[in-house]
């Protein structure tokens, strides 16, 4: 911690022998008051839009709405129902399968792209860096709309292939492609930044020993950016567990395949807004939030030696 | 020889990936120049009869010009949320880095702990609280929650801590500047690059936001572009009468991303700055 601010050593010598102690006390008080004043707006927002909603969601998740008695305290009944609900289970299985396949594919593409732009220093590689990153700047809604049109058999460019991109069998892969397209470039930049921070001398000595560029990329560079890889993987998994916007937008293309319980978040949304089941919806939201939150910290803790964040 | 071959292979892979990343943009650009018949009948990846101007006219006439209202709303939400979130984050980030006050470390630890709380889990309870405060379906329902940016506070704290020496602030204090003066005239100018990054990320985050306005707003005059375009898309797919046709929606999507692409190309340095600080620190 910084302990310089008003330490005697840093005080001006020209201040003279006047009584310093009360003045210093006043300075400390003033600093403390200013500090609190400065963080106050943030604290108010933190309470109003994070802590309060969390507490509120937890509270209403413990109640049930009944026709006769109104709101009734039900302790963990909603949670029990959520855990036993086959529709919740289907959604959880879906996001897990999705995460297990999509995360390695996308991080793999991002890693290859990052290694390529780190090794090549041509004008084209600079252009490529931009091209891969642009999809991240597009709103998820609009990226999904674009792919919705591209998948269409009437206006899309792939209609000649005769593939139905939104059938029950293919729609998950099609959604995975949208997420990969949108986020691979973002992860590429994160990994590229980590690669740029590595000491170049290491490669020189490996080259002297006769290692090829591919070997250097796989055996030296990749292990050295493992902490950035871990973080990128973590953020991707957190994102996939909360999967919501893409399936919601593409829902009208095939409501039979993208159901109202397609992912836990889609289910919670429809429970709240199509069926007015606020208590049950809050329980699902809270459960999902808790899983993502606890999961993130377990993941960070388990990999803390590799991760820079811990 | 070998090196050259490797370089050719590397560029071929990059070329293929670039096609993948840019193809949807190319399609969108081409599609926005076609009328609805052209969209269905011509080659999807090449131009047919040029109707971009007609499409723009249709787009801005659709439902009494509601698209322009959505654009204005998106811009308004982005600017107010972005500037507000940056101001709040700047004050808090500076205080966490440079001012000693009781509870500072505990509060900062709380912030770090809460950075991982998933935003989507908060939207529904925030909606219920907002509806009790009669704020649902007002601009405040979208703006107020967007002012909270724990990651921005964290980023600015790191930046201030690493790049503003205490001596600089101390010198201003000795010159008789009050704490607020020290902040505005010494700290703020030094924080500029990080402030631009936080501003950029919060503005773009707000421009791209979907879940929050989707839940909070039912009056289509308050919609941002994302929610509005999705509503048009839904009606078009369902085949509702009087709905915007595909060529109008495609043109709307193009118009909605042009400002982002321009901002992105002009401010590349700051984009990367934000990602790098977030990832490496």
Automatic annotation (TrEMBL), chain A:
Sequence ranges of Low complexity compositional bias: 7-18
Location of this chain's protein in the cell: Cell membrane
Keyword vocabulary terms for this entry: Cell membrane, Membrane, Transmembrane, Transmembrane helix, Transport
Membrane-spanning segments: 34-58, 92-116, 128-151, 171-195, 225-244, 280-302
Gene3D superfamilies in alphabetical order: MetI-like
Disordered: annotated span: 1-22
UniProt domain ABC transmembrane type-1: residue ranges: 92-299
Keyword Transmembrane helix: yes
Major localization class: membrane
Pfam family, one: BPD_transp_1
CDD domains: TM_PBP2
Record flagged with keyword RNA-binding: no
Family statement drawn from the similarity comment of this UniProt entry: Belongs to the binding-protein-dependent transport system permease family.
Protein name: Sugar ABC transporter permease
Organism in which the protein naturally occurs: Actinoplanes sandaracinus
UniProtKB/TrEMBL annotation, chain B:
ABC transmembrane type-1 domain residues: 71-267
Keywords from the UniProt entry: Cell membrane, Membrane, Transmembrane, Transmembrane helix, Transport
Source organism per UniProt: Actinoplanes sandaracinus
PROSITE patterns: ABC_TM1
The protein, known as: Carbohydrate ABC transporter permease
Record InterPro entries: MetI-like, MetI-like_sf
TM stretches of this protein: 12-32, 75-96, 108-127, 139-160, 237-267
Chief site of localization: membrane
Similarity comment: family membership: Belongs to the binding-protein-dependent transport system permease family.
Lipid bilayer topology: Multi-pass membrane protein
SUPFAM superfamilies: MetI-like
Compartment annotation: Cell membrane
């Amino acid at each position: 911690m910084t302990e310089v601010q008003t330490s005697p050593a840093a005080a001006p010598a020209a201040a003279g022998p006047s009584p310093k102690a009360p003045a210093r006390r006043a300075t400390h008080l003033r600093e403390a008051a200013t500090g609190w004043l400065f963080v106050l707006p943030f604290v108010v927002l933190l309470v109003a839009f994070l802590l309060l909603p969390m507490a509120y969601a937890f509270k209403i998740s413990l109640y049930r709405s009944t026709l006769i008695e109104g709101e009734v305290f039900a302790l963990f009944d909603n949670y029990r129902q959520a855990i036993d609900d086959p529709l919740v289970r289907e959604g959880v299985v879906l996001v897990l399968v999705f995460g297990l396949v999509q995360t390695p594919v996308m991080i793999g593409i991002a890693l290859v792209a990052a290694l390529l732009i780190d090794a090549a220093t041509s004008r084209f590689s600079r252009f490529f860096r931009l091209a891969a990153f642009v999809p991240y700047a597009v709103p998820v809604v609009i990226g999904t709309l674009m792919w919705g049109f591209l998948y269409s058999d009437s206006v899309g460019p792939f209609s000649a292939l005769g593939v139905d991109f939104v059938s029950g069998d293919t729609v998950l892969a099609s959604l995975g492609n949208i997420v990969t397209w949108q986020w691979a470039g973002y992860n590429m930049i994160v990994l590229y930044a980590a690669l740029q921070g590595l000491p170049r001398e290491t490669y020189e000595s490996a080259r002297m020993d006769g290692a090829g560029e591919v070997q250097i990329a796989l055996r030296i560079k990749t292990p050295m950016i493992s902490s950035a890889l871990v973080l990128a993987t973590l953020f991707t998994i957190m994102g996939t567990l909360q999967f919501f916007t893409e399936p919601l937008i593409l829902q009208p293309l095939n409501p039979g395949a993208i159901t109202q319980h397609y992912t836990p978040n889609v289910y919670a949304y429809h429970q709240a807004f199509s069926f007015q089941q606020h208590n049950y919806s809050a329980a699902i939201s809270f459960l999902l939030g808790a899983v993502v939150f606890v999961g993130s910290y377990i993941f960070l803790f388990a990999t803390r030696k590799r991760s820079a964040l811990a | 020889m070998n090196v050259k071959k490797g370089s050719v292979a590397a560029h071929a892979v990059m070329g293929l990936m670039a096609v993948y990343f840019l193809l949807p943009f190319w399609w969108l650009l081409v599609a926005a120049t076609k009328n609805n018949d052209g969209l269905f009948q011509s080659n999807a990846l090449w131009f047919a009869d040029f109707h971009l101007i007609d499409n723009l006219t249709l787009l801005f006439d659709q439902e009494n010009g509601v698209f322009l209202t959505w654009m204005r709303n998106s811009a308004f939400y982005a600017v107010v949320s972005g500037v507000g979130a940056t101001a709040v984050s700047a004050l808090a980030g500076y205080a966490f880095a440079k001012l000693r006050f009781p509870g500072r470390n505990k509060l900062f630890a709380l912030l770090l702990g809460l950075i991982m709380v998933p935003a989507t889990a908060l939207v529904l309870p925030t909606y219920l609280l907002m509806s009790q405060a009669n704020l649902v379906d007002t601009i405040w329902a979208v703006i107020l929650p967007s002012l909270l940016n724990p990651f921005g506070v964290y980023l600015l704290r790191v930046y201030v801590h690493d790049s503003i020496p205490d001596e600089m602030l101390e010198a201003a204090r000795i010159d008789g500047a009050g704490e607020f003066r020290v902040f505005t005239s010494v700290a703020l100018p030094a924080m500029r690059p990080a402030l631009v990054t936080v501003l950029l990320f919060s503005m773009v985050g707000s421009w791209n936001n979907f879940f929050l306005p989707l839940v909070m707003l039912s009056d289509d005059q308050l919609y941002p572009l994302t929610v509005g375009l999705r509503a048009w898309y839904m009606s078009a797919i369902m085949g509702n009468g009087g709905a915007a046709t595909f060529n109008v929606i495609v043109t709307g999507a193009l118009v909605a991303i042009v400002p982002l692409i321009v901002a992105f190309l002009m401010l590349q340095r700051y984009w990367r700055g934000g990602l790098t600080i977030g990832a490496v620190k």
